[in-house]
Automatic annotation (TrEMBL), chains A, B, C, D:
Protein name: Chorismate synthase
Alphabetically ordered keywords of this record: Amino-acid biosynthesis, Aromatic amino acid biosynthesis, FAD, Flavoprotein, FMN, Lyase, NADP
EC number: 4.2.3.5
GN (gene name): aroC
GO molecular function: chorismate synthase activity; FMN binding
Amino acid sequence: MSGNSIGKLFTITSFGESHGAAIGCVIDGCPPGMALSETDLQADLERRRPGKSRHTTQRREPDAVRILSGVFEGRTTGTPIGLLIENVDQRSKDYGKIMDRFRPGHADYTYYKKFGLRDYRGGGRSSARETAMRVAAGAIAKKYLAERCGVTIRGYLAQLGPIRAEAFDWAPVAENPFFCPDAGKVAELEAYMDGLRKSGDSVGARVNVVAEGVPPGWGEPIFDRLDADIAHAMMSINAVKGVEIGAGFASIEHKGTEHRDEITPEGFLSNQAGGVLGGISSGQAITVSIALKPTSSLRLPGRSVNLAGAPVEVITEGRHDPCVGIRATPIAEAMLAIVLMDHMLRQRAQNADVRTDLPDIPAHP
Amino acid sequence: MSGNSIGKLFTITSFGESHGAAIGCVIDGCPPGMALSETDLQADLERRRPGKSRHTTQRREPDAVRILSGVFEGRTTGTPIGLLIENVDQRSKDYGKIMDRFRPGHADYTYYKKFGLRDYRGGGRSSARETAMRVAAGAIAKKYLAERCGVTIRGYLAQLGPIRAEAFDWAPVAENPFFCPDAGKVAELEAYMDGLRKSGDSVGARVNVVAEGVPPGWGEPIFDRLDADIAHAMMSINAVKGVEIGAGFASIEHKGTEHRDEITPEGFLSNQAGGVLGGISSGQAITVSIALKPTSSLRLPGRSVNLAGAPVEVITEGRHDPCVGIRATPIAEAMLAIVLMDHMLRQRAQNADVRTDLPDIPAHP
Amino acid sequence: MSGNSIGKLFTITSFGESHGAAIGCVIDGCPPGMALSETDLQADLERRRPGKSRHTTQRREPDAVRILSGVFEGRTTGTPIGLLIENVDQRSKDYGKIMDRFRPGHADYTYYKKFGLRDYRGGGRSSARETAMRVAAGAIAKKYLAERCGVTIRGYLAQLGPIRAEAFDWAPVAENPFFCPDAGKVAELEAYMDGLRKSGDSVGARVNVVAEGVPPGWGEPIFDRLDADIAHAMMSINAVKGVEIGAGFASIEHKGTEHRDEITPEGFLSNQAGGVLGGISSGQAITVSIALKPTSSLRLPGRSVNLAGAPVEVITEGRHDPCVGIRATPIAEAMLAIVLMDHMLRQRAQNADVRTDLPDIPAHP
Amino acid sequence: MSGNSIGKLFTITSFGESHGAAIGCVIDGCPPGMALSETDLQADLERRRPGKSRHTTQRREPDAVRILSGVFEGRTTGTPIGLLIENVDQRSKDYGKIMDRFRPGHADYTYYKKFGLRDYRGGGRSSARETAMRVAAGAIAKKYLAERCGVTIRGYLAQLGPIRAEAFDWAPVAENPFFCPDAGKVAELEAYMDGLRKSGDSVGARVNVVAEGVPPGWGEPIFDRLDADIAHAMMSINAVKGVEIGAGFASIEHKGTEHRDEITPEGFLSNQAGGVLGGISSGQAITVSIALKPTSSLRLPGRSVNLAGAPVEVITEGRHDPCVGIRATPIAEAMLAIVLMDHMLRQRAQNADVRTDLPDIPAHP
């Protein structure tokens, strides 16, 4: 394919521009017989949806998704699931000013050089609007993995600019607009974001995602390793600049004796590996951390050039997220779910009849 | 494919176990007409080869590669290039002791659970031995990219355990066994590695890779982004636990005004993006940084279980790298070359006839 | 992917059931800059559309296609083109009678055994309704190939049941409802079809497709041969049971001296090969012939079993084509166009800079 | 990939030229735990091997295959299986005369125009030599399908030039050099082939392949239909010009009432479909028929042009099959096995947990 598909057996093919007629995707490879309806997708779409708090873009996207195929009498049929969201709130006028110039830090210039023309309306294909389809497709994978495989996938905001979550609890994640697991930091985050918004600037963030309940054996040597496919999926999200599995960059200063996760009959004694050994799941929690850059859509003027190469000043008006990382949590969960779903199917295909006498080694708590 | 291939148009399919009869790969998609011989591959294989200094495993692998097909009268024919390295120094006896147990931090357990059996000789398929084929294939991509596209790909060791390169110069990289760009640190590295080796422990490292001369336009939206494919390729290397593009994790604390790379007619004013915008090359240097974990093959005893689930002590004798990161530089260069070669071909396919009046914006020095 | 995509660089991913909400597809890989609008697609959709003569099903499908993405200001942008046709004339009641039984000669039984459930409305995913999307996608390929590569793709009905076209002329093909190149046979075809319709039975057909103007060099050894990919694409059309390239099955009784297409400086002396040698286009006309089975949807009772395995009688009411081959011509043209478009892009990728002094050998007239 | 791989989950990647150092392939996706050794592959290689009777080329190829990886202690490990056959009997001198000219009916011209150069020794990559690897890989698929799925795959020569097999029995197939199921025709075939060889000419053939024991449910809508993938695999064999499934081209004159395979609780009443409905196996025998053209390598002079476009006479000396179809039977079996193996794995992946109360409908005897 030419770049708009992901997954080998659970394949998502996405289309649509930010301000075109609609965005959509095709999910090919969902097993038959799973109960599925639009409401199953809407929940995660809501978590991603902008405009829910004053800390995200006020662009109003109802994001009402339609299932066009692949579901009959409330169950998946095994045929491709077509999803569609019509674009309703397009406000193209917001973008007229930038049609002749390249916003710094955006894909305007690279799309123009690659394709020779570009849909400048709201960033066209390169807009974060596209991630709505990742979330919708990911919701299907999450549902299947939860119901059939006992896998739970959850994410949270680990850091926003200078502010790190210190305490950790899953409960508050769903209760604040930042997906922050440290309830004590929410006020500080509110204040910081208010100041940031007033300043007109933006900031980066770190999002962590965890998959629990993945059995040993998912992932393929040598190139389609589970961690390699996760890195691919995460880096394919707008604004992501770094990916870590397990100890990640901290491994640089680790000694082998502290990093290798020793094993006892009672279970693994640590999880520096982040649940993946040799590209294959170990049965421990799969832990992923990603870095998101600050958005480059700012009302503070930036230097750039126009189509003629002449210097211009760029001011991005309209509605933008001062921290795109805030809404990235459900997107990162979706991408992890899509990769795990794909590798679960691959494991089934090749190793359906593998049995060993050795029980699974318990994960490190 | 089932995991042992990488690349869509420039496709590497790899096979072979550490202590089997041979390792090899097939390179499908190399354009015809390029001069190629074994000596073109041997240079990078030498850079990766163990046993060149006291700081790497003393396993002796001549790593003499044979080109079996795809080259006629000294030029590539456009048909698949088959490469083969016979395994000569196998010393299986070194590994007899671990046939019934799982080395902690290795793929022994995950391979066993996935496949129900495993080739325990030297780690079998999961051994770093496999990376020799990445280097050989990468050498072909590097040669084509250099000769036909003016792209230069170079890497270096940025950090080894606690020791960071501070000064930077490409010259010393080729002149010390660590690929270190800071000549002033070499003595410190020597001493540190000697101590580490005596202690029986191992340590992690950071390797950086840079591609210069990549024109704007390589990379595909949405999922096959250039940076996403780079992340996939890098994370597929043994022991890699993290990948950064451009500013990477530092982006978390960046403000938008400092991160967005502003543009003037004279060129980009910075390169926080690492040469990729919206998944497409910008014409700036593509900068990648990876974290490698310390090897888990230690002579210091570690706790684990055997095939029966009973507790055992694991001691890895034989010859191992106290820092696998030292030899990772040519491997990382190879993977970057393979990804760039693939995307160069994809750009040619889809956008061969794209022309714009706008000259390329110069890269930030 | 899981079966609903075709093409490596020009990739069509299709979705939708006969009587679901809509059918659609995503075309990923269309080069940018080509003028494109719905009217470009509608022409071929009209040629395929049922209900245009009394000889095809009277099901009324306006088949109004919407372009949802990938086109901006009238030109393709290089991003995926999303196409959608809402299903308007569903008449599910026609099919209520067969929900509990398997129509002989249909996919009812195989879908049920594969997926454990099926959308029985009008055949669901296995309905010929799906071919509308092939035609729409093929129209894009045909337009690009015609405008940029000088390739013309045309098809015709070579045989309908016992009636063979004997005279050949392209002119009448567009002027009769059978796509028959032998104007003298049209009356006979009319009479035959009227009798067939009265009898309640159906009949098979042969459709030929020809691509002219394809330069030498399209197609890849060894498995992705141009003729192999054509065979795949043709056999993927509902009801196709056989595919021939060039002389096809007549080759069985050929002598080598008569079959090999000799060459003179003035050109090839024959075209038994059908324009493909070693899987690569030779510059001669690419000639393909396919056999289509008679539809199994008959009002004449047939024996079958129901979901409980009990014997039942099946009568298919509703509107059906007594000869599905009649409408297959634009579908076969579309599939040939899709394959050629894909291989043109692949040839560009790998061999963009190949030049030879030898001029192309002229095709046999 | 670029054409030298086939299969999505059971993937064969092939390399090697007729007179290069070696030919080989990588089989990626074979499930672990199956007993496998070189002797398992050698049996089918022997059936394909030339020089066994006076009716095939006298080129002596020991075709001794080595398993280089993926097998440990006599069992497959689930990692890629590397196969290698060194080329021993190269006799390049036979081919010196054709290095500057294009043999009519061969791939010489198309390879030259595509790649700008070609390995002219024995046809290089386009030689039938390449099919040895198909047979070796197919033997692995056949073994797995037989042992784990109860699938039997057998082929035979149905027609050689004007001589058709009339009686049918599997027994004689293995007992004559033609794979002919009609013992009474063997003498006629011997005489015909002796005359043909003396004349210096060649002739075409028809080979049929049958797979029995395939359960319902293998194959994917819409494009990766089982029959479409079979057509692709068969048409990818050198010299194949046509493919039929089930009734094939006879379907053109069939009435729906005779073609649709009616069903009773005792089983299907016929098998015009050839075991595939809607692209999915029905549980009936999968029947495939292919047409092979006569070889163009003749000692009888043929007209062609040389690299300068000047007229030349081509005489192919050396050793060639007067009927390549004779040796095609094991190749066609191998390709069918590879496709079925791939779809068996795909069915496992997506529909592992599908159950229906309906027992499989018995096949028509």
